[in-house]
Amino acid sequence: MKLKIDEEKVVEMNSLTNMSMLTVRTLCVFSRYGENHIVSKYNIKDYVWQRPVTDNNLTHTIHKCRNVLRESKTEFDVVNIRGFGYCLMNINFVGGNIG
Fold first, then answer.
1. Is 63 helix (H, G, I), strand (E, B) or coil?
2. How does pLDDT run across 4-59, given as a tens digit for each residue?
3. Cα 16 to Cα 21: distance, rounded to the nearest angstrom
């Protein structure tokens, strides 16, 4: 599976065997918004579950996404932006603009 971040960046995902459909859908949300764009909790929940769920469901799925990104040895991580949501960021890039 390839996760397209923007026109120039494509991340190869190798650990598909352990990914749930919720994890795949969550990674798709970040792919749609792109790198360094904050995605609100509401937008993630709306796209992934399409019904009201608790924040614990979201936190658990974000944790799984982080594990998949680490196991695939990508340069990306999902970062919590307190009070706003989550952001897919390049962990090798320091000091970039988030928006």
1. helix
2. 665 555 555 554 556 789 999 999 999 999 999 999 999 999 999 999 999 999 99
3. 10
Could you tell me if 11 and 5 are in contact, meaning their C-beta atoms sit under 8 angstroms apart?
A: yes
Q: What letter does residue 93 receive in the DSSP assignment?
A: -
What is the DSSP track for 8-56? S-EEEP--GGG--HHHHHHHHHHHHH-TT-EEEHHHHHHHHTSS---HH
Q: Which residues contact 61 (CB under 8 A, 6 or more apart)?
A: 20, 22, 23, 26, 48
Q: Is the C-alpha dihedral spanning 48, 52, 56, 57 positive or negative?
A: negative
Gyration radius (Cα) of the chain, Å: 13
- Report how far residue 35's alpha carbon sits from residue 7's, in angstroms, rounded to the nearest whole number: 11
Considering the domain delimited by 2-90, tell me its CATH architecture: Orthogonal Bundle (1.10)
Distance CA 99, CA 96 (A): 10
